[in-house]
Amino acid sequence: MLSHMVYFTLKDASEEACQKLVAAGQTYLKPHDGIQFFAIGRLASEFERPVNDRSFHVALHVVFDTKDSHDVYQVSDKHLAFIEQGKNNWDQVRVFDAYVD
Asked: Which of 4, 72, 93, 97 ranks highest by number of CB atoms within 10 Å?
């Protein structure tokens, strides 16, 4: 399986802007073939240990059954619409892809 983790740092990190990104993820990203696990949500602000990376506002976690499913997702119309809709408010986007069991 391929785990695709994306961390968004927003220019406008208001509650409304974060909720808009989360809702867009649910609408545009969740309904793709090959997804084994999908979650998107806000930073858990109560975790303030020295090892916690708190330099993001919204996290997206998607686990695909195969790399091929991930590759189809990357160029899908819904994924591209998600990017187009939200990119103006993204200050930084960090992507971490890993093969997992």
From this structure: 4
pLDDT one-digit tens code per residue, 31-81 = 899 999 999 999 998 898 988 888 999 999 999 999 999 999 999 999 999
Supply the pTM of this predicted model. Answer: 0.94
Query: Can you tell me whether residue 17 is helix, strand or coil?
Result: helix
Q: Which tokens go with 31?
A: 């309904």
Interatomic CA distance for residues 26 and 47, integer angstroms? 24
Output DSSP code: residue 89: G
Give the domain ranges of the chain: 1-47+55-63
